[in-house]
Model the fold of this input.
Amino acid sequence: MLRAMRRPYTAAHYVALVNRIVELMPHASVGSDVIVGFPGESDSHFQESLELLRRLPLSHLHVFPYSDRPGTVASALQPKVDGAVIRERGRLVRDEGAEMTRRFRTAQRGSSRRALVVDDGWSAVTDNYIKVRLEEQGERNTWRMVTLIQ
Done:
């Protein structure tokens, strides 16, 4: 599927890259963008992709259902994946992404992280992109140390 999507890398290269990042930076938040329903994506292609995602130490996923864009090479590719199938595949990958996020947050529990105060001052985002609720309001765009408890 990566070749059909004209991606300049293989699944093995991507797996090695993600694993190397996490090896060098164990607290890193590593996410991925995933397109479901690209023309020609069979049930077996999708299952292989889902299994690969499940093996990766990712913290989150952004899931995009494929849709034709007029004038693109992909819009002429066949066979098209049925819209209902695309929606179901998207749901399955989003569910896996939610589980990844849960596992990542659980693994970070108890760690102290530098966090940037955002929004109305009652929230902060850690240096590895975990949004937390603050016990006391802070000044927006300032840094503070937080301990992750949830």
